[in-house]
Structure formats: C-alpha cells, structure tokens
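Page 37, continued from 36.
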C-alpha cells in the first residue's frame, strides 16, 4: 500500500456488526513493513455508528417473490395465448433491409434545388414599377 493510501472493506452485515458490538466502534492495529525492512504500525478506528439509520436495507419476502412469479406467469400467458405476439422475421435479413431502404426512398419528399454561389439567381418576372 502506498503512503497515506487506504483499503476499504466491510467486516460483515450491519446487523451482525451491531450484534457483536452494539457501540459499532472497532479499534484495530495495522502493521506493515517497508521494502527496506522498516516496520510500521498504525492504529485505526472503525466507527460504523456513523452509518446507522442512513441507508435503507430491504429484504425480499415470500410475498415479494410471489408477486414476481405472478407477473412472470401473466407475461408468459400473454405470449402463449397470443395476447402479445412476438415479431418473427421469416425472410432474409438483406432482402428485408433492401425493401425497407426502398420504402424510405419512396417516402422522401423531393427537395427543391438550391442555388450555388456559381449559379446566378433567377430573374424576377415582375414588371418594374413606373
């Protein structure tokens, strides 16, 4: 680990930590040795009480599982009975794309040619004012 570096980890679930130590404060000593043989020791304080009450923790119940299974069964029934139908392409992909491109070309609105800087503007056919 580099100087002033940090490793972060969780020692267990929040409930387990609270069961083992209700204060949620842990003290530990981290000992390490440099490449040159110097030994170092750092005392750490892990205060998990900062996180108490800050996060929502949900657990799926049998009721939640039943709701998800019913939703899956409903979707599967819709597909099986034809209520929702799958779109299955039964022709060659290149032929389908060619037909699609042709349809797009046919529906395009033709654009009026614009005057380029080299082309003179058409003369007005209005009569000059007297």
């Amino acid at each position: 680990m580099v100087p002033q570096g940090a490793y972060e980890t969780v020692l267990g679930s929040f409930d387990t930590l609270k069961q083992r130590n209700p204060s949620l404060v842990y003290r530990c000593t981290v000992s390490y040795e440099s490449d040159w043989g110097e030994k170092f020791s750092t005392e750490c304080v892990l205060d998990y009480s900062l996180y108490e009450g800050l996060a929502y923790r949900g657990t799926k119940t049998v009721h939640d599982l039943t709701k998800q299974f019913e939703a899956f069964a409903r979707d599967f029934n819709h597909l099986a009975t034809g209520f929702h139908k799958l779109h299955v392409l039964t022709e060659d992909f290149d032929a389908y794309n060619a037909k699609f491109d042709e349809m797009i070309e046919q529906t395009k609105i033709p654009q009026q040619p614009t005057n380029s800087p080299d082309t003179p503007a058409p003369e007005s056919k209005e009569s000059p004012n007297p």
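The CA atoms of residues 31 and 37 lie 12 Å apart. Flag for discussion at group meeting. Residues 1-58 form one domain.
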